[in-house]
Amino acid sequence: MNQLLLPLLLMLVVAIPLVMGTRKQKKAAAKQQELLSSLAPGDRVMTTSGLYASVADATADTTIDLEIAPGVVTTWLRQAVREKIEPVVETDEDTLDTDEVVEEPVIESKDEERVEEKSGAQIAPPLEHGKK
């Protein structure tokens, strides 16, 4: 009995993670299949290559038409869709009021004149490259 205990424990140590990993993969595959079958026109999606688009037509079994820009529709394999993206909703905090004017600080040139007087150096005008 003792001779069979060690091989049995080794098999359990190897088999349990394999079974758990397989279950996790099956759940992920089922979730992805559910996503692909639930796509409808107007949904925002991201492809596996990172392209954001809107679903234009999802009637075909293996392909899907994605609108990547207004009036630009491309055909993709359904498996290329990675996930559904929620549309971005702008809040009042995100938008800047056009009434607000941001003032930049004014740099006084008196400090520059004092530096020139102390050092005795003159500032040369900037070089103009490319002019002949």
Task: Spell out the blueprint of helices and strands.
Blueprint: H1 2-37, E1 44-47, E2 52-57, E3 63-69, E4 72-77, E5 81-85, H2 110-119
Query: Could you estimate the helical fraction of the residues in percent?
Result: 25-40%
Shape: extended
**If you average the pLDDT, what whole number results?**
80
Give the CA-CA distance, first to last residue.
97 Å
- Structural class from helices and strands? alpha+beta
Short characterization:
The chain has 132 residues and is α+β, with helices and mostly antiparallel strands. It has helices at residues 2-37, 110-119; strands at residues 44-47, 52-57, 63-69, 72-77, 81-85. It has two helices and five strands, in the order αβββββα.
